[in-house]
Amino acid sequence: MIELSRPEKLGLSADRLDRIATHFDRYVDEGRIPGYLALVARHGKATYCHCYGLRNVEAGHPVENDTIFRIYSMTKPVASVGVLMLYERGLLQLDDPASEFIPEFKQLEVFESGDTEDYLTVPAEREMTIRDLLTHTSGLTYGHMHAHPLDAMYRQRKFLDDPAATLGEFVANLSKLPLLFSPGTLWGYSVATDVLGHVIEVISGKSLDRYCADEILEPLGMADTGFSVSPDRVARFAANYEREGAGFRLIDKPEESTYLKLPNLCSGGGGLVSTAGDYLRFCLMLLNKGELEGTRLLGRKTVELMTSNHLPGDCDLSSMGYLLYGDSRPESVGMGFGARHNLRRGGARTETRHDGVGFGLGGSVLLDPAAAQILGSPGEFGWGGAASTVFWVDPLEDIAVIFLTQLMPSSSYPIRRELRILCNQAIVD
Question: Residue 53 in contact with residue 28, Cβ under 8 Å?
Fold first, then answer.
């Protein structure tokens, strides 16, 4: 159970927090999402937790405090913390070439022109670094982006879908394709964090799942978080759905899910399942500058570095983000600021809000709420997942927010932007 403190003791209005339920319950009642959980914590204490709807529509099982969700790209900040723990031990540097740990990345080429079958490349302007991987400025991409011939080439090779492949094999195969752009020149959401998972394995000598369990999940007491769901937890595991018209359809039954077995390739970019209570412990660790209840994962200065904007010249994503071609959009990008606001430059569209939003080491950083046209604080750090989940931590207000549901793609509805408004308008101190 998640113990709750009175909102008024933490500078929040209970009446205003109830607007979260009023708004998102309608999503369920209108058949747009199956169910959800919204959690708000301030000053280290959970103060609002609302569950509504069903975690398994077919079975009639409700969303509960301990429901286990696929968090997809909310895995990325966890894996990034794992990389920074190695950084603190002197085992890597942010400006280390990725090829120091992945020799196949030594001489990468960049796609210049052509199509999936016949294309020209040029040498990358410089080597890809660890920071490039942490900030998604690596030149890698995702197959589901549907924006470039290279995305189609990723899909053809089914890089993350081969059940027999290991992380090492995935990275080796990835190196055979060109980059989308030279490292450090643009921002493009990608499989970079999965590559970092292999870096973790190379340095630590452990599998990614074992490393995360030993170094992050078990020390923080995140008992329900992992890359698979054990038999004794299946009853709490939510079904996953995909938007279909004004409703949704089942795409992954808990009792038959691939998550019931630990995969050969554990995805640092999107492979974890978790609960609201577990992920809150991760959020509180970040708000506490690397420590929770006497367990320290990172030093204060490292967390400050992680949650700073790392885009060159302190620019935002609108200055550096890779734009999609024509009118196409990614099907499921984990950007924490949501869709609906599709900025245009030269006739192209972006999937996410770019103005006033930077990027840290593993998540987005809100730089300018006025430019982003969103209620929030400079320094907010967070990210979202493909099934419409999201989290953020706001050091200025000492607040953490988590929203969990299971609806793909994440761009189906402007849930994340609406949630930011509904949470922040409840601050009254």
Answer: yes
Q: For residues 329 and 411, is the Cβ–Cβ distance under 8 A?
A: yes
pLDDT tens for each residue of 279-303: 999 999 999 999 999 999 999 999 9
d(CA 112, CA 6): 58
**Are the C-beta atoms of residues 397 and 377 closer than 8 Å to each other?**
yes
Which class for 306: exposed (0-12), middle (13-18), buried (19 or more C-beta within 10 A)? buried
Q: Which residues pair with 313 in a beta bridge?
A: none
327: buried, middle or exposed (CB in 10 Å: 19+, 13-18, 0-12)? exposed
For the chain, give the longest Cα–Cα distance: 64
Tokens of 342: 């599709």
> How many angstroms separate the CA atoms of 379 and 309, rounded?
9
Per-residue model confidence as pLDDT tens digits over 218-261: 999 999 999 999 999 999 999 999 999 999 999 999 999 999 99
Buried b (16+ CB within 10 A) or exposed e, 127-159: bbbbbbbbbbbbbbbbbbbbbbbbbebbbebeb
Work out the angle at residue 147's Cα, subtended by the Cα atoms of residues 141 and 148, and round it to the nearest 5 degrees: 70
Q: Around 41, how many Cα atoms within 13 Å sit in the side-chain half-sphere?
A: 27
The conformational region for residue 173 under phi > 0 = left, psi -120 to 50 = alpha, else beta, is: alpha
| pTM assigned to the model | 0.93
**Residue pair 385/70 in contact by the 8 Å Cβ criterion:** yes
Enumerate residues 6+ apart whose C-beta is below 8 A from 240: 70, 250, 251, 252, 257, 387, 406, 408
The single-letter DSSP state of residue 98 is G
Question: What domains sit in the chain, N to C, each tagged with a CATH number?
Answer: 71-418 (3.40.710.10)
| Beta-carbon count within 10 A of 28 CB | 17
